[in-house]
Every structure is written in structure tokens, then in C-alpha cells.
Amino acid sequence: MNYETSIASDTDLLDPEGAASSRRKRNLIIAIVLLTAAAMAAAYFFFGGTSTEEEAAAAADKLGQAQTVSVVAPGRETVARAISATGTLAARREIPVGVVGEGGQVSQVFVDAGDWVQQGQVLASIERSVQSQQIIGQEAQINAARADLQLAQNELDRAMQLVSRGFISKADVDRKTATRDSARARVSIADAQLRELRARTARLDIRAPVGGYVLERSVEPGQTVSQGSGVLFRMAKGGELELQAQLGETELAMISVGVPATVTPVGSDRQFNGTIWQIAPTINQQSRQGIARIALPFDRALKPGGFAAVEIKAGAVTAAVLPESAIQNDRDGSFVYIVNKQNKVQRRAVKTGIITQQGIAINEGLDGTERVVLYAGGFLNPDETVKPKLVKTAAQSAAR
């Protein structure tokens, strides 16, 4: 023990309260020094900024806390442009058949709905007993007129032989010539009247104006008919049928005559191939729709008046194709969310096109290289950081 230590120890022993006060001052000074050092360190980190490594660590920590979203890079593909519509089946050229003559009581009906007939074939016959008697009487008048003509011709021939000898005057010859000509005219008149009677009688047969398929029969034997009786038969000319598809103005502008289409009648799983043969030149002002007429081959499964769905092949388009879940809509239109290189969500306005089995074609807004959010778009906000997970759509998986 040295002298100084001995003195301090002795002093502490002599003055214990002073020693305790000295220790408190020393501890206070140490605490102040430590707090100053801590404040200086905090000021350095706060005002001096973080290092690049620290920024990367903070970003990684933020990404680790971000939600995971499924994204897809749709690319661009060629898809068939198909237009779906509905319409009514009908005869391509429907021919109504009625009475063209004076009418009367129907004696026989020879065909029924669903029969095939040839042009000129008798469909129904009207009773003609009166007309038959008129024809017989007219034929008799023709025979009498021909007899008068023959007599007048014989008398003229004899007169021509006697005029050169002077036994008959030239005036007598002229009178006999006039008599012969008059008899010939009466024969012509009677013959024309007979042809008229026969034509009128023939019109009592209701005939098919064209060959085709009988769609409807509205007459029965014993029924009295006339030109005011309306339509007795309806026919499909040549059995040709069609679908009258209702399309909007935009869809009508996308098609043309000759475009193929597939028709499926309601209640049937059969499909029939046809082509557009006529596009209506006018638009209905109330519905803003027009009619595309699709020619179909005859088949008993296609019943005029029935309802059918149609898919029209309107060419092809190259575009990005997305599932419906990726496309959002609001009052500003359609849009999708894409994830940029910084893994931040961005809104992108798009213009949708045709709907296919693979999805919805995007006509404008995407070039196919973007990472598009597939699901949970309604729970995202622009500039939100997410953790993207690249997946394949069903169409991309099927292509591989």
C-alpha cells in the first residue's frame, strides 16, 4: 500500500458521506459521456444516410412483407375471330300458294306438310262440273262454226269456177268470199272461247309454282275457297333453309357474304355448316340490329320457325389473350394491372376484342411482354409493391 492510497482510504474512513458523494459525481460523468456517444452515433446514421447495402436490405425486407400475386406474360397469338348470335330458322325462299282462279269447293287435297313436290304438281283440286259442261257446249259451237265455214268455202269455190264463164257476177263472188271469211272468224272466236274455258278450268287445280318442300297445309276437302281465302299452302323453294341471325352494327361490319358459320338448333346437339348469303342493307332503329341470312342445306332436324344459335367465323386476329379474371372494369373502361421491373403495380387501360375459348383478346394496350396480374386485381393499388409469381395460362399450357 502506497502513501496516497492509504491517505484516501483513511479519508473515506474518516468522512464516509463525502466518499459517497464523490462516487455519485463520477457515475454521473460516465453516464453523460455514454449518452453523448450514443447521440453522436445516431446523428451520424440519421444525417449521414444509409449505405447501398442497407438500402438493398431494406428493400428485400419490404419485398418479403409484400403479398404474392400470380402474373402471366401472355405473348401474342393468332386466334379465330368468332361471332356468337341467335336467330330464327326459316325457308330461304318461302312461296305462299293460294287460289288463282274463281274458286269453288275443294274436292281433293293431294299433298300434306312435309311432302316434296315438283313444279306444276297438283296440290289440291276444286270441283268443276259446271266448267266441264261449258267446255262441252263450246266444243259443239266450234263444230257448228267449222261446218258453216266449210259450206261457205265450197260455195266460193263453185262461184270462182262460174265467174269466168259469165254465169255469175264478180259482186256475187265478193259476197261469197265475205261469207267464207265471216265463217272462218266465227271458228276462230269459238276456238278462243274454248281455250279460255279450258284455261279457267285448269286453274281450278292448285299447282305448285316451284319444286320444293311443303311447310304448311291450310285446306281440307269440302272447304269452299276463293281468291280471298288467303294462303292454302306454304312451300320452301328447293327445300332451301336459312338462319336469320340478329347481329349488332359492329358485328355486321366484321362479316361479309360467303363467311362460314356453324348453326346449332335449340334442343339439339347437332351442328350444321352454312355460309352467309345475304346481309341486310338496313338496321332496325329500335333494336339497332340487322339480319345476316345464313344458307343451310335441307335437313328435317332444321324446323322453320325454330330458334338456333350460330357461331360465325369472321377471320383471325393476332393479339394478346388473357383470362377474364385478369381484366377489370370501372367507369373509365377496361384495364389490367401489370407488374413493372421494380415489382410495383401499375394500371394499364386496354381495349378488349373477341371472346374465344382461350380467353379475351386484347386489341389495344398490351404488346404481350408485360407481366399481367391474373387474380386479386380488385385488392391491389397502383404503386403497391408485390411479389410476382409467373404462371402459365390454360391456353399456354395446352400449346405446349
UniProtKB/TrEMBL annotation:
The chain crosses the membrane at residues 28-47. This is Efflux RND transporter periplasmic adaptor subunit. It comes from Sphingorhabdus pulchriflava. The keyword Repeat does not apply. InterPro entries: Beta-barrel_RND_2 (IPR058792), BSH_CzcB-like (IPR058647), MdtA-like_C (IPR058627), RND_pump_MFP (IPR006143). Residues 103-231 form the CzcB-like barrel-sandwich hybrid domain. Residues 135-200 form a coiled coil. GO terms for molecular function: efflux transmembrane transporter activity. Belongs to the membrane fusion protein (MFP) (TC 8.A.1) family. Pfam families: Beta-barrel_RND_2, BSH_CzcB, RND-MFP_C. The keyword Ribosomal protein does not apply. It comes from the Bacteria. Residues 243-314 form the CusB-like beta-barrel domain. Residues 319-373 form the Multidrug resistance protein MdtA-like C-terminal permuted SH3 domain. One of its GO terms (cellular component) is efflux pump complex. Signal peptide: none annotated. Keywords: Coiled coil, Membrane, Transmembrane, Transmembrane helix.
